[in-house]
From TrEMBL:
Predominant location: cytoplasm
Record protein name field: 3-isopropylmalate dehydrogenase
Functional description taken from the UniProt entry: Catalyzes the oxidation of 3-carboxy-2-hydroxy-4-methylpentanoate (3-isopropylmalate) to 3-carboxy-4-methyl-2-oxopentanoate. The product decarboxylates to 4-methyl-2 oxopentanoate.
Family per similarity comment: Belongs to the isocitrate and isopropylmalate dehydrogenases family. LeuB type 1 subfamily.
Cofactor binding description: Binds 1 Mg(2+) or Mn(2+) ion per subunit.
Annotated Pfam families: Iso_dh
Assembly, per entry: Homodimer.
Cofactor(s) demanded: Mn(2+); Mg(2+)
Record's catalysed reaction(s): (2R,3S)-3-isopropylmalate + NAD(+) = 4-methyl-2-oxopentanoate + CO2 + NADH
Length: 361
């Protein structure tokens, strides 16, 4: 069966355009083999949108995203825009995109690839075999809770306020995604909260426990976030699927990513109940190496694979991309972030060419 997909391409800032070019080429290259046609539509978001039209997420971009089957996002942000008022920062555009598309579930896998085990800062015996998935709630919690702002008190002293809040329905919908995700993996779900201190976390824990009645085949455990951070670096193999709120997920997913040695290898998927998902690398826009052909495009390419798997339901095509990435690593090709003895260092573009060569064989 032939499928045509409309993909919105948000290349963004910094290394974004370089890595996106590689991912788009790779998707185009595998398309015919799986009877797929991709129609890519570029749109502005992040710092480049601020420069071009004055806002980080132009309405037109959100509309284009809504009218597509999936959104590929590279990376946004850079020092140039860091001093702008908050509502005009690239990050605010990203939050508006998540919220505008209702992307409440963020899947961030962290898997140790045997070829890269030496790249991790942890001992090989600690990380060998690690394969975990962080399911992060993405449109609630302290990122979005009200009230928020910096308010002047009666004495004139300023007070900064953010609110960590979750309603039962918000917890339940991310909880269900997490149980379903765990079900497709090793059926172990660890919910991370701070229920020893925070009321919002107690409700989170109670709802997860209640939901577990519907998933008797999944083993549910709970950890406080401080302990979870420690366990992630002490003995990461104990984890299969982790579910947590927005802020804790932001922090723990970076820690989980670094277990694998390079954040430059990790893709992510952000999904809503319906409509297009956004697929993006976990890493940022790396302005320090932008435009130098040094970036690692593999997390972006693997985000394309996640798009095929989770957004477009084309698992065979996703497998093909993932297999190609593993073969490239097997052949000893690396980008500079993964430099190791007996490897060949390629630029971003050359890494893309090597992938294309492999896929078109
Ligand atoms: C992430 C990033 C974002 C977040 C920033 C850029 C707003 O750190 O996707 O993890 O905090 O969610
Ligand atoms: Mg983050």
């Amino acid at each position: 069966m032939a499928y045509t997909y409309r993909i919105t391409v948000l290349a963004g800032d910094g290394i974004g355009p370089e890595i996106m070019a590689v991912a788009v080429d790779v998707l185009q290259a595998i398309a015919p083999r799986f009877n797929l046609t991709f129609e890519f539509t570029p749109a502005l978001m992040g710092g480049c949108a601020i420069d071009a039209v004055g806002v980080p997420l132009p309405e037109e971009t959100l509309e284009t995203c809504k009218n597509s089957d999936a959104v590929l996002l590279a990376a946004i942000g850079g020092t140039k825009w860091d001093t702008l008022p908050r509502h005009l920062r690239p990050e605010t555009g990203l939050l508006a995109l998540r919220s505008g598309l209702g992307l409440f579930a963020n899947l961030r896998p962290a898997r140790i690839l045997p070829q890269l085990i030496g790249a991790s800062s942890l001992k090989p015996e600690v990380i060998d075999g690690v394969d975990l998935m962080v399911v992060r709630e993405l449109t609630g919690g302290i990122y979005f809770g009200q009230p928020k702002g910096v308010f002047a008190s009666e004495t004139g002293e300023k007070r900064g306020v953010n609110t960590m809040a979750y309603s039962e329905s918000e917890i339940d919908r991310i909880g269900r995604v997490a149980f379903e995700t765990a079900r497709k993996r090793n059926k172990k779900l660890c919910s991370v909260d701070k229920a020893n201190v925070l009321e919002v976390s107690q409700l989170w824990r109670d709802r997860l426990t209640a939901l577990s009645a519907d998933y008797p085949d999944v083993e549910l455990s709970h950890l406080y976030v401080d302990n979870a951070a420690m366990q992630l670096v002490r003995w990461p193999k104990q984890f299969d699927t982790i579910v947590t709120g927005n802020l804790f997920g932001d922090i723990l997913s970076d820690a989980a990513a670094m277990l694998t040695g390079s954040i430059g290898m990790l893709p992510s998927a952000s999904l809503g109940a319906t409509g297009p998902g956004v697929f993006e690398p976990v890493h940022g826009s790396a302005p320090d190496i932008a435009g130098q052909n040094k970036a690692n495009p593999l997390a972006m390419v693997l985000s394309g694979a996640m798009m095929l798997r989770y957004g477009l339901n084309q698992p065979a095509a996703a497998d093909a991309i993932e297999t190609a990435v593993l073969s490239i690593l097997d052949q000893g090709y690396r980008t500079a972030d993964l430099a190791a003895p007996d490897t060949t260092i390629l630029g971003c573009q050359e890494m893309g060419e090597a992938l294309l060569k492999l896929l078109c064989q």
